[in-house]
Amino acid sequence: MSPLARVLLAGVSTRAQAASAIRAGHSVAAVESFSDLDHPAAPNLISLEHDLRVRFSAARAAEAARSLEAPVACYAAGFENDGAAVAELARGRDLWGNPPAILARVRNPLLLRRALVAAGLPSPAARGSIPPPTGKCDWLLKPRRSGGGQRIRSWHREEPVPRWGYLQERISGQPGSLLFVADGRHAVPIALTRQLIGDQRFGASGYRYVGNLVGSAMTPLFPREAELLAAAVRIAEVVTRAFGLIGVNGVDFMARSGVPYPLEVNPRWTGAMEVAERAYGLPLFEWHRESCAGRLPAFLLSEARRRGQVEGKAIVFARRALVAGDTARLLGSDWVADLPRPGDRIKAGHPICTVFATGGDESATVRGLLAAQQRFLLRTRSLRERAA
Predict the structure, then answer these.
(1) Which of 53, 73, 317, 362 has CA atoms 20 to 30 A from the CA of 13?
(2) Residue 284: phi, psi to the nearest 5?
(3) 381: pLDDT strictly greater than 60
(4) Looking at the predicted structure, is the pLDDT value of residue 269 above 90?
């Protein structure tokens, strides 16, 4: 297969992955939920919501993808929980990414905990049934087919554990993730990120994923960060060998006193990947392609982390139903992406756009993200309340 083959991308959102693939020399086609004005796959883009008027599901996206010609398929968020959809997406195509058999195992929270415990690594307790009444854990109810932190909530002992969910021990600390690239046996870390979760300043709530910050050795984002990074790299190595992971992946964790407590593995392109690309200038889609063929990059995260800035990304969510205005004037801006089309109707709680900022430390970068959010609203006069 030529390294410059046309690539079909599929997921809830594929704009960042498409841009990385194009930088790697590929032409792209895409199927996703949205129809962003700045999506680089246009006109070879199918939006389930805008073109087909259906809600996103991996199965629907895989079915729609049959109308797009490409010898290679890659998936993003939304496919990791549906092996049958991945198999359909890859039918007649080469798959660059973890195959269905690997997804079924690594996305099983009980198998993941078993692998971590067997390696002597700390891991939150996880159960598929009601725990004994003598247990002292504080539990979260999480969906097995999780995504973006949605539908996660506290569990109360008097309620049953539904078949679609499981219980995971609640761990206090700071949310983060380690991004890595793997060849089935070895893992190369590519970024340590601090996650923004449920941040009301961007219209989110609960455990909703908002964005990521990527720092450096000079701008740490966690207490005892050197210890935390070393332990997170060990987690990536263990899960890579235990499950045979390939390509780009991420592991989410809660950090406490220099110890990462793994929550889940995202065995695909994640929302944090573009922040790492912006922070360190990494060609992540090229590394994804190469690692799926067994070739890992000669990359040292310790060298990249000598840079002294904090790069950030945040998704802006609608606080009420809105209609997008003149967003076209922002095309080509480097501080905003995922632009809605003029006239798009945006439901309350749905994403509006993504903003970016760089600062000298965590606080400065978050202030920059908030300023970019406000700049978007003012520069475009882009949102008006939708009439009832």
Answers:
(1) 362
(2) -70, -35
(3) no
(4) yes
HEC profile for 262-307? EEEEECCCCCCHHHHHHHHCCCHHHHHHHHHCCCCCCCCHHHHCCC
Six-digit token string for 304: 């990249």
Instruction: Read off the pLDDT of residues 340-371 as tens digits, 9 standing for 90 and up.
Output: 999 888 999 999 999 999 999 999 999 999 99
What's the CA gap between 30 and 11, in Å, rounded? 8
Average pLDDT over all residues of the chain: 93
Q: What's the rounded Cα separation, in Å, for the pair 103 and 83?
A: 7
E strands in 144-240 = 153-154, 165-169, 174-183, 187-197, 209-214
Higher pLDDT, 264 or 156: 264
Looking at the DSSP assignment, which residues form a beta bridge with residue 72? 7, 94
Q: Are 199 and 314 in contact (CB under 8 A)?
A: yes
* Each residue's pLDDT tens digit, 59-69: 999 999 999 99
Tokens read off for 161: 């554990």
pTM over 0.85: yes
3-class SS letters over 139-171: EEEEECCCCCCCCCEECCCCCCCCCCEEEEECC
Percent pLDDT > 90 in the chain is: 82
Q: Which residues pair with 166 in a beta bridge?
A: 142
Spell out the residues 6+ positions from residue 185 whose beta carbon is closer than 8 angstroms to its own.
240, 241, 244
